[in-house]
Amino acid sequence: MPTRSDALASARSRVGRALRAVGLRRDDTAETPPPATLSDPAAGALGLDWFVNPIAEGADPFVVRSGETYLWCQSEGDRGVAVSRSTRLTSRGERRVVWRAPETGPHSREVWAPELHHLDDRWHIYLAASDGHNREHRAYVLVADSDDPQGCYTLHGPLATGDADGPAQWAIDMTVLELGGQRYAVWSGWPDEQTPVQHLYIAPLATPTALGGPRVQLTSPFDYPWERIADDSDEAINEAPQVLMRDGRTFLLFSCGSALLPSYKLALLELIGEDPLDPACWHKHPEPVFTSTESTFGVGHGSAVTTPDGSQWWLAFHAKINRRRNFKRVTHVQPMDWTPDGLPTFGEPVAAGTPLALPGGTPIKPRRDGQSWDLRRDLRGEFDYFGHQQYVEWAGDGLHLGRPPAHPVNVFRSAEKVVLRDGDFTDLRVSTDLRMVEGRQAAGVLLRTSAPAVGVDAHRGYFVGWVARGRLVLGRSDGSTWTVLDSRAVSIDGAKSLTVIAEARGDQITAYLAGAPDQRLQASDATYTRGSVGLRVVGTTHAVFSSLKVERLG
Predict the structure, then answer these.
(1) 489 pLDDT exceeds 80?
(2) Residue by residue, what is the 3-state secondary structure of 407-472?
(3) Are 238 and 221 spatial neighbours (Cβ–Cβ below 8 Å)?
(4) Which helix (H) or strand (E) covers residue 11, if one does?
(5) Fewer CB within 10 Å, N- or C-terminus of the chain?
């Protein structure tokens, strides 16, 4: 006689076949960071003082502390610049586009690697831009019109990044070094217009928007074999210089190899003399300081920052999401340290999905009371988004997840989701009003969710989704895999706009649609007993969510 386990296995097999038929299984076009070997998911949700990587989509992360907040600067689809403000290093927080490139002209395309610096009581953003042809890249500076780092900016430049009395030369990744009462610009450039080999250059800054002298070459990317794009290649790159200062010592953390490839890495220069403009005063360490692993690769363009309580240093860097030659990258943050003799040490890149304790001093404000949110307002100050930035929009009709971008740049789909920050609910009812715009896969609610990250199944908790072909599904993710708990076809009028409702009481989880409460899903599962709430789409789905409501039960 079949046992209950046999019956359950048979039912799950039928559910799996049904879900494959309606397209809820992992979409072959979706991309995600390599899954980590996770701790036992039966251990339950991660607490509020833990997080996992990757924290966001994006390359060339630059982050700076400003009082009690962190400010992130990021390219906006290669056509502008966005600045995000957050009280925590592991969350981008409120994001605002502060400058958009013109439709045409020498700085209308390929806006790369913006950096935010506070100079002379004003915020400045250093960036590279071109007319759409990489060989025309030049360095520019945005100057804030007010004291608000998320306000409006005015463009200046290009800067005179050439040799003495020469025109501006190819330049990207400009940063600012302040030392001994003087300022210097440091960037990656070509020696001439015909030789696309990237060296590091330095020049004095006369003002925040003008260089005070010709460039000086600091490094050659041919000093060591590991700086080359490949072992047998004549191409080599030094780029993305970042200033690192501690206890009177000055370092430049820089990237080498190619950001297109898994072999991208971080290396280190140290100022060992008095004059930053003298190449002989800089020492290049003979080995790279941060390299790829099997699970986390293409690591580079790192910037370092201290924690809110000043007790720790952390590194923000990007990593590739697959080994193919492309610019599809995500942002990681992890602790770094210092050796007893004063050198920075970075260890190995931590694998995606590995639990890490929040940076020291991170403010946590648990949210356990019922609440309703009107998603037709921009709520990025309360919810964290995990997915490519070009697939989300807070608009007047609601939160769009999976919205196809008009001008896609390095895009990838990863089951885009938003999660309420610091949500900590046990027994609850969660509901959302949604409208399916396009796509034949699922959209719905997350509950008892922790450890969210960028990735298809990168969260621990439960998901209740409506599949556009007329099916409701309930399942569980453990951070890297998806398990179906129940699924059924549901007949309901107006299937484009509907309300999805999920309840969790102890180990009992139920789900249904408003208007069809008798056609409900049920499962008994004690894997996750608490967590936050959120919204999610699967595959190529585009849905608009207009409201989210949480009620405590019991």
Answers:
(1) yes
(2) CCCCCCCCCCEEEECCECECCEEEEEEEEEEECCCEEEEEEEEECCCCCCCCCEEEEEEEECCCEE
(3) yes
(4) helix 4-22
(5) N
Query: What sign does the CA torsion over 193, 197, 198, 200 have?
Result: negative
Q: Could you tell me whether strands 398-401 and 417-420 are parallel, antiparallel, or unpaired per DSSP bridges?
A: unpaired
The residues, any chain, with a CB within 8 Å of residue 443's CB and separated by 6 or more, are 401, 402, 434, 436, 465, 466, 535, 536, 537, 538, 541, 543, 545
First to last CA, the chain: 40
DSSP code at position 180: T
Gap between the Cα atoms of 12 and 8, Å rounded: 6
The C-alpha atoms of residue 396 and residue 375 are separated, in whole angstroms, by 9
Task: Report pLDDT for 41.
Answer: 41
For 526-542, the three-class secondary structure string (H helix, E strand, C coil) is CCCCCEEEEEEECCCCE
Neighbours of 545 (CB within 10 A): 25
Work out the burial of residue 31: count CB atoms within 10 Å of its CB; fewer than 13 is exposed, 13-18 middle, 19 or more buried: buried
The helix (run of H) or strand (run of E) holding residue 9 is helix 4-22
Contact present, 272 and 251 (Cβ < 8 Å): no
**Cα separation, 138 vs 189, whole angstroms:** 9
Q: Is the peptide bond between 54 and the residue preceding it cis, with omega within 30 degrees of 0?
A: yes
R_g over Cα of the chain = 25
Q: Which of 416, 547, 429, 439 is nearest to 496 (CA)?
A: 439
Phi, psi for residue 336 in degrees, rounded to 5: -125, 175
Q: Which amino acid is at 166?
A: G
Contact 460, 483 (CB under 8 A): no
pLDDT above 60: residue 294: yes
Convert the pLDDT of each residue in 151-201 to its tens digit. Answer: 999 999 999 999 987 789 999 999 999 999 999 999 999 999 889 999 999
Q: How far apart are CA 449 and CA 460, in angstroms?
A: 5
- Residue carrying the six token digits 């003002």: 207
Residue 14 has phi, psi (to 5 degrees) of -65, -40
